[in-house]
Each structure stands twice: as C-alpha cells, then as structure tokens.
Amino acid sequence: MIPESVYLHYLNSLLDGDKRECTQIVINLIDSGIQIKEIYTQLFQRSMYRVGQLWENEKCSISNEHVATRITESLIEYVGTHYSNCSCCGKKAIITCVDKEFHELGARMVAGYLGAHGWNVLFVGSNIPQKEIIGLIKEKKPDVIGISNNFYVNVVRLLKLIEQINAEYSEAEIIIGGQALANGKADELIHQKNVKYICSLDSLEEYLTAYNKD
Ligand code: B12
Q1: Domain total for the chain?
Q2: At 193, which CATH number?
Q3: pLDDT number for residue 40
Q4: Which of 54, 72, 103 to mutate to test the pocket of ligand 1 (most atoms within 8 A of CB)?
Q5: Which of 83, 104, 131 is the last residue of a domain?
Q6: What is the pLDDT along the chain (214 residues), one digit of tens a residue?
Q7: Under a CB-based contact definition with an 8 Å cutoff, are residues 103 and 89 in contact?
Q8: Measuring CA to CA, which residue among 185, 201, 169 is closest to residue 38?
Q9: Given 57, 83, 109, which residue is the final one in a domain?
Q10: Fewest Cβ atoms nearer than 10 Å: which of 89, 115, 177, 195?
C-alpha cells in the first residue's frame, strides 16, 4: 500500500511538471519493495484520474495535463523495465489501442504488467489503423490480443476490430479494457466467447492466474 502522503507528494510534483521528483519518489517506492501493480494503479492511474478531474474543472491546463501524461508515460516504461521478467513464459501478446484512440497509458500499463509476468509483449500503442493491427496479428500470431478503448466514440471501431480479428485470426483470445467499456457497457455489447473485458490490473492478475491453470 502506498502511503497517502507519498501519493500526494507525487501528485503535486506531477502537477508541477517535476519529473525529477516524480522519478525519485518512484525509485524510493521500488527500493522499499512496492510491487509494479501498486505503483501503476495507486500512483500512476490514481494521479492521472485526478489530473482528469482537475482538467475537467479547468483547474489544470491542457499543457499541464500533457506534461503530466508525458511524465507518467516515461515512468510506466521505467517501472515496467525494472520489473521486466527476462525468463520468458513462452506466451506472446499484442497490446494496442483501437483506431482513433489517443489514450494509451492504460494499454502501456497492461503491456508492462504482462512483461513483468514473463510475456513477450508487442506494444503498438494508440491511433493505429485497423488494417495495420490485423496485419501485425497475422504476422506475429499472438496468444492474446489486448485492446484499449477509453473514448466512448470509438466503441463502434472496437466492435468492428473484434469482428475482423475473429474473421481473420480466430486462434487468439482477446482482452479488452478502458473506461469506454465501464459501467456494464462491455457486458451489453460484447458477446463473443473469446473476448473478455478486464477493467483493472487486479482483474488482469486474476485472468493470468486462470490462464496459467488452463
Ligand atoms: C491523459 C488524457 C488524455 C490525453 C491522452 C494522452 C495519452 N498519451 O494517453 C489526451 C490529451 C490525448 C486526451 C484526449 C482526449 N480525451 Co482524455 N483523458 C485523459 C485522462 C486525464 C487520463 C487518461 C489516463 O491515462 N488514465 C490512466 C490510465 C492508466 O487509466 P485507464 O486508461 O483507465 O487504464 C486502466 C483500466 O481502464 C484498464 N485498461 C485500460 N486499457 C486497457 C486495455 C486492456 C487490454 C486491459 C486488459 C485493461 C485496460 O487497465 C488500466 C490500469 O488499471 C482521462 C481522465 C481519466 N479519468 O482517465 C481523460 C479522458 C479519458 N479523456 C476523455 C476525453 C473526452 C478526451 C477527448 C475527447 C477530449 C477532447 N475534447 O479532445 C480526447 C479524445 C481523444 C481520442 N480520440 O482518444 C474522457 C473520456 C470519456 C469517455 N469515456 O469517452 C476522460 C475520461 C476525461 C473525462 N472525464 O471526460 N485525453
């Protein structure tokens, strides 16, 4: 558990755009044995959700939000590399965002978390044309495909992408996540057997435990 005082210190440093201080806080947490999931969710996700609220209420400018995003992006990579498990478990995942989706921090975290569990991860990121994703899937033949969708307008693109993946490469399991699918939306819209909605890193941990048992 990350202490509230550490979270608040991190949040203030993030809002100040102080990357050096944010990095030092993260290094201290790693040194004190805090694990990747806690740092990703209790520090990075929580602070970015807070940045979002401040931005909505016009208490944080667009440029401050962009700086916070950039700092978070690089620290997700830093922590992911630190915890990266070099003994590969033999499984491969492609983690991407749906076309026209610019939010990619959640997908980055999923990629980092899988990397820490020995998965070979190809992180594609945001705003990639659907045909490119399909091409990569057919080339790399992953065991699992992860798709992130935060902006509700892109849900239709997500449904089309799932349909096309299943038409062209039905061997993979598809995991989907992101805020556009929260509050029951995923259950309402997704009915394919090989598609699972995963709302958090806790759920991803459960998914991996079940996956390893099969
Ligand atoms: C940073 C940010 C941006 C940045 C993104 C930069 C980047 N490189 O990622 C920029 C400035 C580009 C942006 C743009 C926009 N944004 Co914005 N943004 C945010 C903000 C503040 C933080 C997002 C974030 O990184 N969160 C932290 C991550 C870690 O959380 P997460 O994505 O939820 O991921 C977790 C889970 O959802 C899950 N998960 C996510 N993906 C996946 C994938 C898989 C496979 C799995 C298993 C799990 C999983 O696991 C993650 C870890 O727990 C949010 C506020 C918020 N509440 O999040 C708004 C927010 C997401 N944005 C929003 C909006 C509306 C927009 C814009 C339309 C604004 C505008 N008017 O232009 C555009 C849309 C652009 C587009 N086409 O996508 C809304 C979305 C509402 C909705 N559901 O549709 C939010 C919620 C703000 C709000 N409350 O209104 N945004």
Answers
A1: 2
A2: 3.40.50.280
A3: 98
A4: 103
A5: 83
A6: 999 999 999 999 999 999 999 999 999 999 999 999 999 999 999 999 999 999 999 999 999 999 999 999 999 999 999 999 888 889 999 999 999 999 999 999 999 999 999 999 999 999 899 999 999 999 999 999 999 999 999 999 999 999 999 999 988 899 999 999 999 989 999 899 999 999 999 999 999 999 887 7
A7: no
A8: 201
A9: 83
A10: 89
Rounded distance between C-alpha atoms, residue 43 and residue 103, angstroms: 18
Residue ranges lining ligand 1, Cβ < 6 Å: 41, 45, 48-49, 51-52, 55-56, 65, 69, 100-107, 109-110, 146-148, 150-152, 175-180, 198, 200-201, 204
The closest residue, in CA terms, to atom 32 on ligand 1 is: 106
CA atoms within 13 A on the CB side of 148: 24
CA geometry: angle 160, 99, 49, nearest 5 deg: 115
Q: Are residues 110 and 206 in the same domain?
A: yes
Query: What is the CA(45)–ligand 1 centre distance, in A?
Result: 10
Where residue 62 sits, what CATH number does that domain have?
1.10.1240.10
